[in-house]
Structure to design on (170 residues):
């Protein structure tokens, strides 16, 4: 089974459309969670807003390969979970939904150190974002498409932090 195919313009459009959806879903969940529990910020993004240009450039260059790694981990967990659920007798649809949810929880758990081990935050906020980020892979079976969606999402968050940092430095 191949995981990578040359993306089409339709794939690029799908990625660009789903990144704001992932941001919106996680924002709604984050707002709801913050009304009942304190949440933690991402210290790397907060530090980046006040970093020198050369350090910012080095960090930005490392983001796409890191996100590709996160996509590969998530897709492997997704596919393994689907296969395990099928072997246990679950229907195809139930196996896909179960694998989708399991991979979102694992993805969230990978972010525990980043968010000061705030379990609810990573499972609910990061996990809900992952549900949207997994849709491009589920629809296209192409890791490049989900990676582009993830890079677009995180890139927009980083760009926002950089703009806010630049404005606050004035």
């Amino acid at each position: 089974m191949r995981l990578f195919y040359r993306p089409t313009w339709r794939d690029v459009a799908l990625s660009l459309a789903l990144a704001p959806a992932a941001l919106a879903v996680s924002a709604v969940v984050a707002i709801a969670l913050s009304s009942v529990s304190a949440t933690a910020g991402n210290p790397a993004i907060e530090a980046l807003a006040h970093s020198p240009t050369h350090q910012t450039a080095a960090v930005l260059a490392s983001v796409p390969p890191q996100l590709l790694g996160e996509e590969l981990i998530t897709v492997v967990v997704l596919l393994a979970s689907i296969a395990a659920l099928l072997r246990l007798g679950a229907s195809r649809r139930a196996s896909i939904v179960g694998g989708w949810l399991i991979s979102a929880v694992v993805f969230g758990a990978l972010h525990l150190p980043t968010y000061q081990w705030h379990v609810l935050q990573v499972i609910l906020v990061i996990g809900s974002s992952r549900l949207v980020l997994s849709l491009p892979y589920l629809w296209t079976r192409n890791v490049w498409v989900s990676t582009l969606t993830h890079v677009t999402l995180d890139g927009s968050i980083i760009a926002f932090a950089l703009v806010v940092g630049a404005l606050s430095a004035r």
Observations:
- Residues 12 and 145 are 7 Å apart (CA to CA).
